[in-house]
User: Which sequence fits this backbone?
């Protein structure tokens, strides 16, 4: 029986291994370090998300919501060391033409389609 493309992709996605925390001897100092580093990255992402929203021609809250959702999805699915999850300047510039021609309504569908294509491409 042939597997569907979606089933094959689902087998390649690995969920984060939460048991790894037990191996790393999670201490109060380690938790504090992780929380402070997460807070630092989140605060650094705020001006970037607002700036990219302005470049794309959408309301700044759209950029903040998108940055939050990208972080949440990356945390749930599991990121990799060295992987950057967030908006890029090149993507914001491309979105300007889309938003100007079709409006904000097509922005979400376009981003979802880009994500699907990235998953397929590996």
Assistant:
């Amino acid at each position: 029986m042939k597997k569907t493309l979606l089933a094959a992709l689902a087998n390649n996605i690995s969920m984060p291994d939460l048991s790894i925390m037990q191996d790393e001897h999670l201490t109060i100092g380690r938790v504090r370090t992780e929380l402070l580093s997460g807070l630092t990255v989140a605060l650094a992402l705020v001006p970037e998300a607002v700036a990219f929203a302005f470049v794309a021609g959408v309301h700044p809250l759209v950029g903040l919501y998108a940055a939050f959702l990208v972080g949440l999805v990356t945390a749930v699915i599991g990121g990799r060391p060295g992987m950057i999850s967030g908006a890029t300047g090149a993507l914001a510039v491309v979105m300007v033409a889309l938003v100007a021609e079709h409006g904000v309504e097509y922005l979400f569908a376009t981003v979802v389609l880009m994500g699907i294509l990235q998953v397929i491409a590996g």
Notes: Helices lie at 5-12, 20-23, 28-56, 60-77, 89-102, 105-121. The chain has a mean pLDDT of 77. The first helix runs from residue 5 to 12. Residues 46-121 form one domain.
